[in-house]
Amino acid sequence: FEEIALKKKQGVKTIFLSPLFKTKNYKRNLGIIKFNILSQFAKNKIIALGGINKNNIKKLKMIKAYGFSAISYFNE
7-24: buried (b, 16+ CB within 10 Å) or exposed (e) per residue? Predict the structure, then answer.
């Protein structure tokens, strides 16, 4: 919340939140519920990052995000 509040003060229009799902490098992830709570708090455009692949792409319908980025998914 603190980092989002700082970005709002800085006038940032789009915020990238990650990792949404588990990745090789990060075992801790936001998950759908925490992601949605943070995105409601931000009231900015939110982009989901991290761990998005063909197995969990359908779960993106449950998040409140402006968009997503998934390098591994598009490289497959």
Answer: beeeeeeebbbbbbbebe
